[in-house]
């Protein structure tokens, strides 16, 4: 029945999904609790109710449902949905979700380790979790791992790996990845210098709203060097 509920949700039949998730949740299905909490949080098939969403997330998180742990971590990190802002608790929740194979949690854990938020700063641990998330296709992990390889934080400087990471993030359409890849081509880092490709990547990043890329493109336009 959980697959039926997921199919209904993915088909945007929120009323049917809500009914199925509710039934399954009452029967103790942690996946259903998590999905039902998400629906309450986002007013899908029901009236928005952050309190009910929180109760469901907490019930499922107690039973170690990976995405309930992650969603609760997001609320805790940002002080949302009636949850007190607590970076240390958020880090614990993200870590629990990360070890249970949630790629986005791997990114959040790595970011907190890189910045020392809610934990001791540890670049090598950050690199480990970025790599784990990248293995599972997370574009932000590819991008941030590329930065670590470029700067030599937690890993040895490796221009080739830096290029590969930024390229994967760019190929996935991540604005920051496009911008960073453009910088590599502009400077010839990890690749053959190519200003035309650099400009192309910068344009793509600007189209996606990347602030620095937009400023560069605007400056080139004002100087009459390019037509956007």
Structure classification? mainly alpha
Distance between the termini: 52 Å
Instruction: Please give the oligomerization state of what you see.
Output: single chain
Order of helices and strands: HHHHHHHHHHHHH
Rounded radius of gyration (Å): 21 Å
User: How many DSSP helices?
Assistant: 13
Number of strands: 0
Summary keywords:
single chain; 228 residues; mainly alpha
Overview of this protein structure:
- The protein is an all-alpha fold and 228 residues long.
- It is 71% helix and 0% strand.
- Helix 5 runs antiparallel to helix 6 (87-98).
- The N and C termini lie far apart (52 Å).
- The relative contact order is 0.06.
What's the helix and strand layout?
Elements: H1 2-10, H2 14-26, H3 30-42, H4 50-62, H5 66-78, H6 87-98, H7 103-115, H8 123-135, H9 139-151, H10 159-171, H11 175-187, H12 195-207, H13 211-222
Helix pairs in contact: 1-2, 2-3, 3-4, 4-5, 5-6, 6-7, 7-8, 8-9, 9-10, 10-11, 11-12, 12-13
């Amino acid at each position: 029945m959980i697959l039926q509920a997921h199919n209904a949700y993915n088909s945007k039949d929120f009323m049917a999904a809500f009914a199925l998730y509710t039934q399954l949740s009452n029967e103790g299905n942690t996946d259903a609790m998590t999905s039902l909490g998400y629906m309450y949080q986002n007013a899908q098939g029901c009236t928005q109710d952050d309190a009910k969403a929180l109760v469901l997330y907490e019930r499922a998180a107690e039973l170690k449902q990976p995405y309930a742990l992650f969603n609760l971590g997001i609320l805790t990190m940002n002080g949302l949905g009636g949850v007190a802002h607590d970076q240390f608790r958020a880090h614990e929740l993200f870590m629990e979700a990360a070890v249970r194979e949630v790629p986005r949690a791997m990114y959040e854990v790595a970011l907190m380790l890189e910045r020392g938020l809610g934990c001791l700063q540890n670049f090598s641990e950050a690199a480990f979790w970025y790599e784990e998330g990248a293995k599972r296709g997370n574009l932000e992990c590819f991008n941030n791992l590329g930065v670590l390889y470029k700067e030599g934080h937690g890993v040895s400087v490796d221009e080739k790996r830096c290029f590969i990471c930024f390229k994967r993030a760019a190929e996935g359409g991540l604005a920051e990845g496009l911008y960073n890849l453009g910088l590599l081509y502009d400077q010839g880092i990890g690749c053959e210098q190519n200003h035309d490709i650099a400009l192309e990547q910068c344009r793509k990043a600007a189209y996606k709203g990347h602030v620095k890329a937009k400023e560069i493109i605007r400056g080139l336009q004002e100087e009459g060097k390019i037509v956007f």
